[in-house]
Write a structure and sequence with these properties.
By secondary structure, the protein is an alpha/beta fold. It folds into 3 domains: 2-113 and 406-429, Rossmann fold (3-Layer(aba) Sandwich), CATH 3.40.50.10800; 116-242 and 439-481, no CATH class; 246-400, Rossmann fold (3-Layer(aba) Sandwich). It is built from 20 helices and 15 strands. It has helices at 2-12, 24-42, 47-50, 60-72, 84-96, 115-119, 123-135, 151-160, 171-181, 193-209, 212-218, 225-233, 251-260, 274-284, 294-315, 338-351, 409-420, 426-429, 447-464, 469-481, and strands at residues 14-19, 55-58, 77-81, 104-106, 141-146, 163-166, 186-190, 235-237, 265-269, 289-292, 325-332, 357-363, 380-384, 441-442, 445-446.
Length: 482
Amino acid sequence: MVESLTDKINSANIGIVAHYYMDVELQGVLTAMDKKQVSSSSSSSTSKQQHRRRIAIADSLAMGDAAVQMCQDGAKAIICLGVDFMSESVSAILARNGYDQIPVYRATSKSIGCSLAESAESRSYQAWLQKFSQNSAMEDLLHVIYINTSLETKAISSSILPTITCTSSNVLATVLEASAQRPNIQILYGPDTYMGNNIQVLLHAVASHWTDQQIARSLHPLHNRESIRRLRDRIHVFPNGNCVVHHMFGKEVVRVATTAYPDAFVTAHLEVPGEMFDIALQKSFHDEGVVGSTSDILRFISNKVAQSISDEGITSHRNRHDAVRRVQFILGTEAGMVTSIVRSVSDILNNATSHNIEVEIIFPVSSEAVTSVSDHDLKLQVVPGVPGGDGCSTAGGCATCPFMKMNNLESLNDVVDMIISNDQGAKLKSHKPPNRLIGKSIDGVDAIELGYQSILFMRYFMKEKRLSDDLLRLINLRRSNI
């Protein structure tokens, strides 16, 4: 399968962008395909071939960036492996960057939903925004919306309130900077209820335990304990939005995992329930855990493994027959994330000249869901953290997204074949992303442009580390027009 698919996408010049939460088997094939392409291009003498990366596994924002890079390098089509709003976003990002002629396809013709994104498509979400807009006429208001929402949701939200998109990596920085530039601003965060509540908990912990100097040095130079408390009280969280996967990380799963592995490093995505988040947060204050995005978790685990190897080299003179030191990590996010972690940790262990380090990645799954690691010399194990049944979905997977798993190898191969055969019929067209905003406008503004506006505001913030003047003008304009 690896050889066949790699040859096909190379010959047809197809790029594939996939989310971290893809099925483990599918990620394994994509990873092998990427390695094969890198190996082939590194042996080539032409710079053009050396830069033709056609596989990317990333979070939802980076998927779009990777697709743009592939198109810049000559890709003729992009296949997006994720849920529908991700393929919709990738298509919009390509169009915004001048690649609207490059088609984007999904792996399946079926609708691939997302419980979190759909919670923001409800009338209750619009009503929640409108209530604040109407009842806070004299207030500065900013809507911070999670990127894992549809373009339509972003467009409608932007028509109600000034809106900026955020990721789990930059949500904290976004609200900190917004309140630094506008100290009395009221921030509406949605749709992820757990993430919003966790941000409030994090700010409370910082205001309670950190000094003003620590806050200014590590979080934001214009903040102190008092301003952090004020910000915490001015964040309003949508009460009815969550991801079905992260919802699984409740009290019982956390109790079993932490009782069985008291000395493990603990990681938690910002989307998980408070129980898991609180443990990882407390551990993070002692550099024994991390709370944040999938990228934050991957970086933390990789750094800790590398640090463990380095510390062993400095403090130990043991030979290879001495006792092995076991480094354990509890993974508080979707199980598909383990593929990228295994790849990173394996590379670190393999590149070390010598070590007696063994790594265990622990996450709430049943034993049947564990994927074995074929190379036993890697000293890397992926183990279940709780008995079968705890933390598992009705779809049969445990700590896995049933929507993401609608992407599979067979359907991917079928789409590739249809693209190669230049099949322009209804079957291939059914694999196109949803385009609910084409030809529509909201209050006289092109709906697609309005939907993408909040992403542009985020892009500006990520580059300049402050809110754009255009966004600030919208905040002023809303208040003056009421």
